[in-house]
Amino acid sequence: MMIIFGVIKEIIVNHYNNGTLQSRKEFLDRLLEKNMEETAISISEYELLKETIDDLSTK
Prior knowledge:
There is one protein chain. By secondary structure, the chain is an all-alpha fold. About 80% of the residues lie in helices and about 0% in strands. It has helices spanning about 1-15, 20-35, 45-55. Helix 1 runs antiparallel to helix 2, helix 1 (about 1-15) packs parallel to helix 3 (about 45-55) and helix 2 runs antiparallel to helix 3 (about 45-55). It is globular and about 30 Å long.
């Protein structure tokens, strides 16, 4: 599971660095939900990544 977590986190950070996080927020939310449903990430990883998106999108 940790590999998927790292990949998704990298996607989030790349969107933040490129200034596209806000416009891709809906896509990223769906990506997190899908991976949690498929048990590719745990609930705690989901919550951490969701919090990361929310924190970065308010900067």
